[in-house]
Design a protein that fits this description.
By secondary structure, the protein is mainly α. A two-stranded antiparallel sheet has the order 1-2. Strand 1 and strand 2 form a beta hairpin. The relative contact order is 0.09. The C terminus is likely disordered.
Length: about 650
């Protein structure tokens, strides 16, 4: 299958599963994505899909782990470093040993080395999967922090132990001393490689910032290839590529303050790119699990066994999953990881840490990294191990999804949707008042105010019929004002007729359908071409025509200068909560119509200055409300982010000033 077609299908499936996730609240996103993968497995080209583990680790796991490290709070990680290594190394190794022996007892027909390989596969946890399950629940901060930090490093423990188990199976020899030294080399070697190369990449980015060449076309591609390059380099030295990208991500996190010196546009583009990319990669992982699952079942049932053996493999997966929960619970209860928790909450938090040992990306990749062929023969028990690993992944996702909502309250915030709307409205009105007070050019002031007001009605859409009714009243007001100007001798009847024809033409454009508009424009261009042809025959000087056109435009501009302010005043006078969206749309229409006939060279400069002041006033409003304790810090952060986004969009969009 073409790789482009395959990736395209995965992207579509991920987007569709994310859309379903917004509607299906009782299932975690990972389960929905697995089900989506199962549906894809019925497509002929997806039948008998086999995942290439090396490509999977490089293309998906490496960038995911890098971005996890980059988003880790380094201060909190330092504070909990001893507990993190206790869970990621001590607990991981003990779990692999105990579960390995238990797996061998349940599956005595497989070699003990493969039993330990299975244990190493199902031990690493996945913070992304934990977030997927608990995103709507109020999980205690200490428990969530421990789970997230553990998942950064226990992947390497699982991978190293897995490699040792496979080596022992291949060679038939196992040396505890050499294994310990190999473990330490792979683990800390990966950290050192990632630390050094990550630091070099950060220095490169700082150099680009200092030399003013830090635009998104340079910075984003560099950051995009960074995890792939670091992973490959670490693997060249036979160290942990996963730990290398985690270490590089942590270096990026420690330098976040310095890297903020880059341009706002680069920061916004980078953040958005990373979020979209990591979301897609996480979706790919679980969709690929769903796609691969039927192939594994097919291979098991076609090995000459009875289908009932699948039931026993599921039972083994259940027993091993329960055993890991018990081991995790005892580990924290016996204070082998001393997590700072209030005595009254210890039992609950210990249980949460135990049951939230959710498995996902690394477990899946290691399961599929078992060789298909060994010494010219099919690798023994490969499908059994993959099936048990998949069973554990699904159990670790389903069980918390069922139990946790019964134990934990829904996530609450220090603000409501009504608070967001209320203070956003107040913030914008505050900025609008300051724009009015600036006493700049009325047309440019109205342009800025119209844009700011569009922030208020961003979730509202104007109703077509209501808009036309208000617009018709505006047209009637224009006719009245024109007649008064004629009666007062301010304009001629010819100018009145010209303006009314223009107004009538635009009114017709607003009311017509797309087909009518297309036909009208075609007729217009036909007439325009015929006029050009006639002028050439009559040898009319084009400079004369241009001069007449400019004179006509100037006359229209003079009339508009008188009428537009009164139209805006009329609209503001009749603005209310019910017609806000319609009024703002009509204001935008009149503003753009008016600007077509203006030739103000300072317009762009005035607008830019007004916008800068308006956004600064919005920031000031938020700071003022936070200082008065009218809003929480969380709500202030949300409002700051919204203003920052609005500022970036408007200030980078040249069409606003065109």
């Amino acid at each position: 299958m073409s790789i482009v077609f395959f990736v395209l299908i995965l992207i579509i499936a991920t987007v569709f599963s994310n859309a379903l996730d917004t509607k299906i609240k009782f299932l975690p996103r990972a389960i929905i994505q697995i089900m989506m993968g199962l549906a894809l497995s019925f497509i002929p080209n997806f039948n008998h899909f086999n995942l290439n583990p090396e490509v999977f680790m490089l293309a998906i796991i490496a960038p995911l782990m890098f971005y996890d490290g980059m988003n880790t709070n380094i201060v909190k990680l330092k504070r909990t470093l001893s507990n993190t290594f206790s869970l990621a190394i001590g607990l991981a190794v003990v779990t692999i040993i105990l579960v390995g022996y238990l797996g061998y007892a349940l599956l005595p027909h497989i070699p003990i080395a493969l039993a330990f390989a299975l244990a190493a596969i199902i031990t690493p946890t996945d913070a992304v999967a934990v977030s997927s399950v608990t995103e709507n629940l109020d999980l205690p901060n200490e428990a969530m922090l421990s789970l997230k930090n553990e998942s950064l490093f226990n992947d390497a423990s699982g991978i190293v132990m897995f490699d040792l188990a496979l080596t022992a199976f291949h060679t038939g020899h196992f040396s505890p001393v050499l294994s310990i030294f190999n473990y330490l080399y792979v683990f800390f070697g990966g950290l050192i490689v990632g630390w050094i190369v990550g630091w070099l990449f950060v220095r490169l980015q700082l150099l680009l910032i200092e030399t003013d060449i830090d635009n998104p076309n340079i910075i984003v591609p560099i950051n995009f290839i960074k995890p792939f390059a670091i992973y490959l380099l670490a693997e060249m030295f036979d160290t942990s590529g996963i730990l290398a990208v985690v270490a590089a991500g942590l270096i990026q996190s420690t330098q976040a303050q310095s890297l903020r010196l880059t341009s706002t546009k680069t920061q916004m583009v980078s953040k958005t790119t990373y979020e979209i990319f990591t979301n897609l990669m996480n979706g790919f992982v679980f969709i690929l699990l769903g796609v691969s699952f039927p192939t594994v079942i097919y291979d098991i049932t076609n090995e000459g066994r009875q289908v009932s053996s699948l039931g026993y493999l599921i039972l083994v997966g259940i027993i091993l999953y329960i055993a890991m929960i018990i081991i995790r619970y005892l580990w924290v209860t016996l204070k082998l990881a001393n997590i700072r928790i209030r005595p009254a909450d210890k039992v609950l938090n210990h249980f949460l840490i135990a049951i939230n040992g959710i498995h996902g990306t690394i477990t899946l990749s290691m399961a599929f990294s078992i060789p298909i062929v060994l010494h010219g023969k099919i690798f023994p028990f490969r499908n059994d191990i993959i099936f048990i690993a998949a069973t554990v992944i699904i159990l670790s996702l389903l069980v918390p999804s069922i139990i946790l909502p019964l134990m934990l309250p829904a996530k609450t915030y220090s603000y409501s949707l009504e608070d967001i709307s209320t203070y956003r409205q107040k913030m914008i009105e505050y900025a609008i008042k300051r724009v009015h007070d600036a006493d700049e050019d009325p047309v440019e002031t109205q342009a800025v105010i119209a844009t700011l007001r569009s922030q208020q009605s961003i979730l509202q859409r104007p109703k077509r019929n209501a808009t036309y009714k208000i617009l018709q009243k505006c047209f009637n007001l224009e006719e009245k004002l024109l007649q008064e100007m004629v009666d007062n001798g301010e304009i001629s009847v010819k100018q009145q007729t010209f303006y009314e024809r223009m107004s009538l033409f635009q009114s017709f454009q607003l009311h017509q359908s797309f087909i009518q508009y297309f036909m009208y424009r075609a007729r217009f261009y036909f007439i325009k071409l015929s006029h050009r042809f006639k002028r050439r025959i009559k040898r009319v000087d084009p400079l004369v025509v241009t001069k007449k056109f400019n004179n006509a435009r100037d006359e229209l501009a003079q009339v508009e200068n008188e009428i537009s302010p009164q139209i805006f005043a009329y609209l503001r006078e009749h603005l209310n909560a019910d017609n806000r969206a319609e009024i703002h749309w009509i204001e935008e229409y009149y503003r753009e119509r008016h600007r077509r006939f203006q030739n103000n060279t300072r317009a762009n400069e005035i607008q830019e200055e007004l916008f800068i002041n308006a956004f600064q006033n919005e920031y000031n409003f938020i700071q003022e409300q936070l200082g008065k304790k009218n809003i929480s810090r969380e709500l202030a952060s949300l409002l700051y982010e919204q203003v920052s986004n609005d500022e970036w969009v408007y200030m980078q969009n040249d069409s606003i000033y065109a």
